[in-house]
Amino acid sequence: MLGLRINYRRLAPASVLLCSMILTACGQPPGVEHPLTAATVLADPDAYVKGGLESEGDQRTSIAITPGMTPPLPLSPTPTRQPPEVFSRTYTVRGGDTLSGIAMAVGLSVETLMQANGLGDADQLVVGQVLEIPLEARLKAPEGWLIPDSELVYGPTFADFDVAEATADFPGWFGSYTEMVDYETLSAAEIVELVATQYSVGPRVLLTLLELQSGWLTHSDPTADARLYPLGYYQPGWDGLLIQLSWAANTLNAGFYGWLQGNTWTFPLADGTFVEIALSANAGAVGVQRFLAAVSPDYDTFVTHLDSFATTYERLWGDPYAYALEPLLPTDLQAPVLTLPWPQGATWYLTSGPHGGWGSGSARAALDFVTDERNLGCYPSQQWATAVAAGPVIFSDGGMVLQDLDADGFVGSGWILMYMHMAAEGCVTSGAYLDVGDPVGRPSCEGGVSNASHLHLARRYNGVWIPASHPRWPMALEGWIPGDGELPYDGTLTRGSEVRTAAETWSALNAIQH
């Protein structure tokens, strides 16, 4: 099974580099060590919540869909598509921001931002300054469902999918490629498995984009650029399969969850032009469109890429709807009953409200907590994070513990709980069974980006990251209900009349006693 063969311990240092460069969260709590600069704030899909929808003419086209495709029901429930009334976006400058960082985060050029804000000097930003972010969309994305939602996420349909076996007969560069990751050599197949598991993105989509962008599956001698930048993101320092696939997965998730949750209405092409999403699109299609827009220099190329994606996918894997499992989130789905993740009598602190489960593109599925130990830094805590529900441990390594609540042995089906940054020493082992309150591990910095020991707790169902504050399936921890803040990492936990606000400090404002 795909999610069980990865040794995360050997990947920890590389994960730190990747997450830093891709502007992903990977579990770091801003209340402890993660300043909310423009790069981290605007890289989140919520940055497009008020994306421009004023359009001039209807330039929708039809994309190639495999003959006979009948799109099934999308992820349930289907969001009501009502464009926002406000067609502008602003950003308030924070400490550490640069205009180039803001421009990169929103997919615009520095010159465009300077012109929109009447700036004569790119270095004249001041904290508190309000910038206008031009997001007016004059173009519209094509109609059509490229793939079912269940193909975009690493869900139940991949239980028997093995990347190495699925690609063994392809004659291309992929079969011989290796990459050093934390002093160990990984094959291309292992890297795809790793990225699919971490980001919960379907490996067939990742492989299709890899073939579309660089021909790695079928071409034995790709160009020098295709070898270095196989997903087509040509930026210095972004070379290599692992970082390219991680960027791709994060971008796919940004489109998927932004549309699924109804907070994304446009996305930028590589030239900074914004495209309005077709209201009839499904989340899986929007995820692919979001990625292909990012590597398309103009609208015509974007449409061509969409057609090519459909053709390439069919050539490699056949009809994507032959794998469909819809809806991924049943209408009668019930959230698991969870307790607080530390021992009775102890007081821990909410440092981060809802934020990305893995990366800025995923849903705000996670909460972060720290103990009452002062000046701990990245030393492992002497206190224990404890199980919030009962079930077997399906994976434990490199700071990550995955608990399988339906006990079916696969990380892409049913409810999965993720406990991140657990110190290796004393951590629960794979195969162990946890009852509520059993020790899981001691908070540390292991397993991703973090410079302060903490617990990062998140949930997935059928491979879908479930927002901590979801109105139907909130991550209620012994009655404490998460609430979103304006930005990722902001937010609250509320129980009755009690409110705790995510903060950088140890105080009564964010203290929770079990």
Tally the structural domains.
2
Annotation, overall tally of beta strands: 21
Q: Ends: how far apart?
A: 37 Å
The residue ranges in which pLDDT falls below 50 over 5 or more consecutive positions are 1-74
Q: According to CATH, what is the class of the largest domain?
A: Mainly Beta
Total helical segments = 12
Q: Any idea of the CATH topology of the largest domain?
A: Glucose Permease (Domain IIA)
In round numbers, the mean pLDDT is 83
Could you tell me the strand content as a percent range? Answer: 15-25%
> What do we call the CATH homologous superfamily of the largest domain?
Glucose Permease (Domain IIA)
Structural class: alpha+beta
Secondary structure: helix percent: 10-25%
Largest sheet: 9 strands, antiparallel
Which geometry do the CA atoms define?
A: globular
Give Rg in angstroms: 22 Å
* CATH arch. level architecture of the largest domain: Distorted Sandwich
Question: How are the elements arranged and paired?
Answer:
Elements: H1 12-22, H2 38-42, E1 89-92, H3 99-106, H4 110-117, E2 130-133, E3 137-140, H5 149-152, H6 163-167, E4 178-181, E5 184-187, H7 188-199, H8 203-214, H9 224-228, H10 241-260, E6 266-268, E7 274-276, H11 283-294, H12 299-317, E8 347-355, E9 366-370, E10 385-386, E11 391-397, E12 400-404, E13 415-420, E14 433-434, E15 439-441, E16 455-461, E17 464-465, E18 481-484, E19 491-495, E20 498-501, E21 511-513
Parallel strand pairs: 3-7
Antiparallel strand pairs: 1-2, 4-5, 6-7, 8-9, 8-21, 9-16, 10-15, 11-12, 11-14, 12-13, 13-16, 16-17, 18-19, 19-20
Helix pairs in contact: 3-4, 7-10, 8-12, 10-11, 11-12
